[in-house]
Amino acid sequence: GSDWDKAEFVLEELRRQCDTPADLLYRLVEDMVEEMKAGLAKEGGSKDYKMILTYVDKLPSGKERGHFYALDLGGTNFRVLRVSFGQDGSTPVFQEVSIPQEIMLGQHEELFDYIAGKLAEFVSKEDSSYHPRPGCKRELGFTFSFPIKQTSIDSGELIKWTKGFAVEGTAGKDVVQALNEAMERRGLDMVVTALVNDTVGTLAVASLAASKADAGDEVMISVILGTGTNACYVESIDAIPKWKGPKPSSGNMIISMEWGGFSSSLLPRTQYDEALDAVSVNPGEQIFEKLLSGMYLGDIVRRVLLRLAEEAALFGPSVPPNLLIPCILGTPHVSCMHQDKSSDLQEVGRILSNVLGIHETSLELRKLVVEVCSIIAKRAARLAGAGIVGILRKIGRDRSKHDGSSSHRTVVAMDGGLYEHYPLFRAEMKAAVVELLGSEVAENVLIELSKDGSGIGAALLAAAHSKYS
Ligand code: ADP
Ligand code: MG
């Protein structure tokens, strides 16, 4: 029969190893700030944070006009969209395309030819009112949510693939040039005018909203919690020794941290995390991301359940075969089980049965599964909260102002499926931020969902950097 003592031992160990008390988070925040400074000091200055110069030094003004396109590549799907600015009530037109596994793990040119083909398909459906003027091309904001070394607003080299992509031959190449060339091969009259990542797009959309609301709130940070995770923020150019160009008139530059690369011996990692990392496409890398992003949370939970099956025979005398299948349990399953409000935990029972092939579970067992989900999600959410506080500290917005200077509220713009669709995760993350900042300071930090930066935000930045205006 099941060995509940052993199960309780495994669970107790998990609780202890995943614990994230405030003093631990404070030490992580300090580590993070040091790494941020090191990454800003010189190229490669931090082994953790790339602190990428985005070449975006101003955010949208709200005066953008015309039709612009965006291509959002950064996860399991890519999207193409057209946005018309300056026309009230016009809604963006979208098309979502999934990326076949063989393309994600395939060859460089195949990937870009595939994308160019889908873009061509999209514009072939447009009527003539959207055709560009003679001598002009359609302008595209390219959201490329992988670490790149940007060299201007419309060029940048891939540093490395993340999030399950392992396309051969792209690392070190200019992804804008690759896409422009593929579009030319297709005879498509489109050109990339802005290369951004989803965090920068999110910042753009949120800034536009804040400027329209006119409440003086300052959008300084954006964080994506989706398949992967990253953050960007508005840094003072004087705090970026590695910037060698002219000083932008705004005095600022948006920095994409690539915060998923953070790693520290202080991070609360377990044997499950280590095993997951070891079989990932990028072992030893993106350690922070592997603790908290949507691509991984489900599989961490699966690994805990597998150990409970193997060592405590919790799901019967033999190990349910589905528990051995990597990634069979997704983060949406985790959030669904964690947030099951029915008294008999029906959703938990349904997912255990439908997804893992574990039928007829007792309420006691379902409760234990919920607790596993809760421990893994809470650790993730609190680490994300610590990451936000790290940025707030770096830009001096982690304390109250006693010098009488204007105290605008700081907006942290959030996006990504994990944040959007997992209310308990959001609540834990915000609670951690309040705990670390104190309630008085936290009142001036607004953590807000800001949707579709990777789409509309990219089109906005393409408009802001139009070659024809
Ligand atoms: P991407 O990061 O690929 O651009 P999204 O921002 O939409 O895309 O995030 C998708 C991720 O969000 C998925 O990988 C999944 O892990 C997570 N997610 C989606 N739905 C939920 C949900 N209901 N609960 C928790 N996480 C979810
Ligand atoms: Mg995304």
> How many structural domains in the coordinates?
2
Which structural class matches the secondary elements? Answer: alpha/beta
Strand fraction equals: 15-25%
Task: Please report the total strand number as a whole number.
Answer: 13
Main CATH class of the largest domain: Alpha Beta
First-residue to last-residue Cα separation: 73 Å
**Helix proportion of residues, in percent?**
40-55%
Q: For the report, how would you describe the main beta sheet?
A: 6 strands, mixed
Q: What is the mean pLDDT? A: 93
Unreliable residue runs: none
Q: Which cofactors or ions or other ligands sit in this model? A: adenosine-5'-diphosphate, magnesium ion
GO biological process, one term: glycolytic process
GO molecular function, one term: ATP binding
Protein name: Phosphotransferase
Catalytic activity: a D-hexose + ATP = a D-hexose 6-phosphate + ADP + H(+); D-fructose + ATP = D-fructose 6-phosphate + ADP + H(+)
